[in-house]
Amino acid sequence: MSRILLLGGSAEAGALAEQLAEAGIPAVYSYAGAVARPKAQPLPQRIGGFGGLDGLCAYCAAEGITAIIDATHPFAARMSNTAVAAAARLNLPLIALERAPWERLPGDNWHEVADMAEAARHLIGPRIFLGIGRNELAAFANAPGHFLLRLVDAPESPPLPRADWIVARGPFRFEDDLALLRDHAITCVVSKNAGGSGAYAKIAAARALGLTVVMIRRPEIALRLRVETVAEVMGWLAAHACSQLRGV
Question: Is the pTM of this model over 0.85?
């Protein structure tokens, strides 16, 4: 009997979890624990890290995991690389469900950078919207300007000096983000190239307002099988990972 480990956290992971549950495929949904109140899933859930490569391998062996689906955020490079290494060590099939990155469109004014440290050196103007989550804000602690943060959970203490924040969970609408950037007199937007539609509104709003977007390129991840749709993952499962399961 197969059992799938779904490394989640993305919108695509939630859609895949629904498909796995509907098909009756035994699976467990793993959250990294970065959000205080993660969205409930139609699968058994675990929350928190594994303790590196050895911990992930031990978990897979103890739980009878027979295949790994990496549907984490495109910037969760450490977890993704660990999953690739664990699959190789345990000889488990692995597939990554990863949405395509955003492409520059006419009217976009992007300054592409490699990482957060480089982003902090290329801020434009006095009021910066950091649309990057909370985990890497420290890179901007000594950067000039006043910051607007959008966070999923309210911080217990100010996450940055010279910062305001709002608490909201996507997906976000273009009209709302356009008003947000205008109301706060934002002069520059910092964003990860996350892809997808849930967080794209700030990019479209920046284009409409003629603002510079400091766009952080995706990190390098080890070579792996990668697809962009839930249907492709389900087809892969049927062909390679759990064809003996009822309903697949």
Answer: yes
